[in-house]
Design a protein that fits this description.
Immunoglobulin-like, five-stranded mixed sheet, 4 helices
């Protein structure tokens, strides 16, 4: 009997938290994983915490319309699905496809306050990874339990039953593991290891050509390798795959950005060098012009010096001749004087 066969009315009349619902799985799956080929028991436990309405009493005394039947209605469904991630261009989209599903409902007598009732369910995990479900997908098993108050209304001597408030709900979702699935998760980790090795080699090659370090950020990929490896070591394959599917390979973009920045810087440097080369060429031409002018000035200066040297030499020669003439003249005068002083003077006649 499905939930659709019940009529739901008179909601919000049962005190919240008066009844609890819990599903206990045996054996208890680690990391929400169940093993392909294994059998599990699901015990649905219903506890009366403080629901004190007696059977046949009005649910809401102020309205005096619906009475409590003394029972609760458990609606439970089981669904086997496959889930995965579809990569579309740079983005991705998750999908869920139901493979098997069934549901049922039960009347459960309301236990006394402080008491509990239990309903057991069995499930054998027979859906694994095959042609319908690839190892890159997940087989999931979902248990959805909902607990309602059952109430009735009397009309013309007949009782008509209805669903009242939802007083408890629990959903459990398990992921099916198998040897092939575990091997696949290990292969994914190997791919991460290979990508990290390839990234380091590619960056080292580029840095070797440039001659200096680019400081490309590989921390995200390194963290993925570490955390994913630790999850697999613990047997938590769901978390391991979740880490991988949530990882964005940022190191490639980072390397591309670094190389583009280097290219822009190199282009800027080449432009600056070209401008400097043109400026140097202008300076060289100016220097050559100045050098030629300096050579002309030097030649002119040398000619002037030579002319001055010649004039000075001529002046020196003329000065020597002039002095020599003066000396000769003076010598002649001295001789005449000497001769006149040696001649005896004639006597004076009185």
């Amino acid at each position: 009997m499905s939930l659709a066969s019940f009529t739901m009315v008179a909601l919000g009349q049962v005190p919240e938290g008066s009844v609890s619902l819990e599903i206990v799985t045996t054996p208890e799956p680690a990391f929400n994983q169940i093993e392909y080929g294994e059998s599990y028991q699901f015990d649905v436990l219903v506890d009366n915490l403080n629901f004190d309405i007696e059977e046949g009493a009005f649910i809401d005394p102020s309205e005096r319309e619906f009475r409590f039947s003394g029972n609760l209605i458990l609606y439970i469904s089981f669904t086997v699905s496959k889930e995965g991630v579809l990569h579309v261009g740079p983005g991705s989209r998750s999908y869920v496809t139901a493979l098997e599903e069934w549901d049922t409902s039960y009347d459960i007598a309301m236990p006394e306050i402080g008491g509990s009732n239990a309903l057991p369910f069995q499930y054998s995990s027979t859906r694994g990874y095959d042609s319908r479900v690839g190892v890159d997908e997940w087989v999931t098993f979902t248990v959805d339990a909902q607990l309602y108050v059952e109430q009735y209304r009397e009309s013309e001597g007949e009782k008509r039953y209805y669903l009242g408030d939802l007083v408890g709900e629990q959903i459990l979702k398990y992921y099916v593991t198998s040897r092939s699935k575990v091997d696949y998760v290990g292969d994914v980790l190997d791919a991460v290891d290979w990508e990290l090795t390839r990234a380091r080699a590619a960056i080292a090659e580029v840095e070797g050509q440039l001659g200096y370090s680019l400081n490309v950020d590989l921390r995200g990929l390194e963290a993925l390798q570490t955390t994913m490896g630790a999850a697999i070591e613990e047997g938590d394959y769901v978390t391991a795959m979740g880490l991988y599917e949530g990882y964005e390979p940022a190191w490639r973009d980072n390397l591309e950005e670094k190389l583009l920045a280097e290219a822009e810087e190199k282009q800027t440097l080449e432009s600056a060098l070209e401008d400097a080369s043109e400026h140097l060429e202008d300076l060289t031409q100016n220097f050559q012009t100045i050098e030629a002018a300096l050579a002309d000035l030097t030649a002119s200066h040398r000619l002037e010096v030579q002319e001055l040297d010649a004039a000075l030499s001529a002046a020196k020669t003329n000065g020597r001749l002039y002095l020599f003439g003066i000396v000769i003249a003076l010598a002649g005068l001295v001789l005449v004087f000497l001769r006149s002083s040696r001649t005896k003077p004639a006597p004076v006649v009185p």
